[in-house]
Amino acid sequence: MGPAVIIIPANASSEETYAAGIVSLAIENLDGYKPDILTDSTAQGSSGKIEISIGRTNRPHGTPRYSSIGSYSINSYS
Asked: Angle at Cα 75 formed by Cα 70 and Cα 77, nearest 5°?
């Protein structure tokens, strides 16, 4: 994966913030760099990097899907 930033909602829950930290750490372990975690109040595309959205951000990545127990699932949008 190319350089990326992680986008969370401006009013992110503690779970969303925690998940962003876990994703950031995983990318650092796999790719050798730690992506910044930004809120969705940052202008879309202003970083010039791939955006990974966690939670219900204002980014137009589609509609999130939920499992039967209400937890987030991972979806890819092109």
From this structure: 140
pLDDT per residue as tens digits for the range 16-68: 999 999 999 999 998 899 999 999 998 877 778 888 888 888 887 655 555 55
What is the Cα gyration radius of the chain? 12
Helix (H, G, I), strand (E, B) or coil at 50: strand
Q: Is the pTM of this model over 0.85?
A: no
As separate numbers, helices (DSSP H) first and strands (DSSP E) second, the chain gives: 1, 3
| 49: Cβ contacts below 8 Å, ≥ 6 apart | 2, 3, 4, 5, 35
Q: 31-43 burial by CB neighbour count: b if 16+ within 10 A, else e? A: eeeebebbebeee
Contact 41, 11 (CB under 8 A): no
Q: Among the residues of 1-78, which ranges form H helices? A: 14-31
